[in-house]
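Student: Please help interpret what follows.
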Amino acid sequence: MIYPPAERLPVVDHLHGRAVPDPYRWLEDPDSPDTRSWSTAQDELWRDHAAALPGRDAWRARVAELTGAGTVSAPVWRGGRRFFLRRTTAQEHAVLHTAGPDGAERALVDPAGLDPSGLTTLDRWQPAPDGRLLAYQLSRHGDERSELRVMEVATGRVVDGPIDRCRYAPVAWLPDGKAFFYVRDRRVRLHRLGTPAEDDVVILGDERSWGLEISHNGRWLTVSAAGDGGNDLWLADLSASSPERPDLRVVQRETGAVTAAAVGRDGRLYLLTTLDAPRGRLCVADPARPGAENWVDLVGEDPEAVIGEFAVAGPVLLVARTRHAISEIGVHDLATGRRRGEVPLPGLGTAAGMTTRPEGGHEVWFTYTDSVTPPGVHRYDTRTGRTSPWAAAPGTVTVPELRARQVVCASADGTPVRMVVLARPGSGPRPAILYGYGGFGLSLAPSYSSYVLPWVEAGGVFALAQLRGGGEEGAAWHRDGMLDRKQNVFDDFAAAAERLIADGWTTAGQLAACGESNGVKLVGAALTQRPDLFAAAVCSAPLLDMVRYERTGLGPAWRSEYGSADDPEQLGWLLGYSPYHRVTAGVDYPATLLTTFGGDSRVDPLHARKMCAALQWATSGSRPILLRHEDGVGHGPRAAGRAVGLAADMLAFLAAHTGLRPPAVPRRTAGGTEADGR
């Protein structure tokens, strides 16, 4: 394949006594004529390759079919009214609905109705305590730079806003519904309806990632801020201080622990924390004495399961855990914390997002999904101990028969690492995708995926590796995959690949690596450290230049996870694995597709441009290195049709370069639809 020329310039940074070459620095500027010309040529190269991929239309059709399951969220109750999201088969975006006591539903915010182009997304929303007003945030072209508005629920009329620069801002309403705390420009502010946003009082002026919550009675304000390996936490009694100047008392600061706090209807301060408990424990305290020295264990740490959330329903406390990434919900006595039983779940999957009525009651709602079950909402009744379906996914789909197996392998240092392997019944090596993330304490849990199922249905293997750096085994598991221990993540991934090959699931000539965002740093490291293990790779929204990642997007917020090139020791960690800097001439690199998005404000597409140029220059083989760029979308949610197109292109590329035969192409006949092999 003939690649567009990309000049290698003698650009070298001298950092803390180290010479750091950066020959494609010029590709960082998206507006320069040279970058534009190069990018246009790359677009043409990808389009030509994509047009020739076998079964591309068939992959698209099957992904679209399975995406037709739609989505539905658990209800959020305010003032006897419920709010929820739902996307049907025919809709490009989920629509925010409300329903009153009579059960009649009404659409409140329909992104596609506001913008038929499909380029507007609903980023976040929060109803006022009485359900009469709704704060909601919209962004366009995928940039996630949200504008906040306030709607009168009864009429749909916008009564306040827009307020710009509210990227995924939490909103905490005061009980009278006339004001709320929120985050703008990464600072905590107080906004009173009807007043200019520029006059809003700044409550906390440091630029951080903030969380906000107010107790059900409006008395207690909880404020959290992400910090190094954990978060700082404050509590204010709004009955004893004004909203403009809340008396914020320290709950914890610089402990390296993650703690979430909320004052319950019983007046106790509940604290879900990893302090002295890497897998989490639930404590209670008097809000008047919120410091850690006054915390009392209510539900202690489980040595094998990680606490994720809790909910209070009458005299019952529900505690959700994941045991090796499989969900369970324990039923506990609210007063003593003693375990009384378990919430029956539909299967071995993921239960999340527990909600209750703010005024109390015996009902708890949660979502459930697994590898073959689209997300639906279930209701647990604390009086009967029964779980029942509440709202199914709105679409009907037929999913393939498959088997899920949990496989354990030993990483380079002997640490046991789990992965879930999905495959149809059968034996013998098959084309396989190994997917990983390994960062920020996020877990890879079982879930329905219209991207995974078509691959398995076509005869492939899909494996999800639960790597260090994630949250599958608690806070210590996360810490063992961050900063100076980041190499553990890559070693775990390589061990998972080797186990798939050794167990006969696949071969190196049939195995693909796949990741997104932080997971692409993982895939990039795998390509440059162990190119022999993989035939192909997809890197979506990639983070690859770890020396300069802090200079763009949300990079500065990630220093606590990766480290900083401004620190001599940390620069050494970063250079040790930075994929862009480890590309070596004369290596036969796997077929690689890098996908970028014009509206991505988290990870700048410059990472993919530089890595693409480096790999195209370096590879000694004939397997293609390609760049797929898409404008009008960003790092996060997008229109369903756009998501289908991206997934289909990724699957078609991976199938072509691992040897998986694409699905049959549906064709119309006089008597209906039948399949035609391609």
User: Anything to note?
Assistant: Residues 33-51 form the longest helix (19 residues). Confidence is low (pLDDT under 50) at residues 667-678. The first strand starts at residue 12 and ends at 15. The CA atoms of residues 411 and 492 lie 5 Å apart.
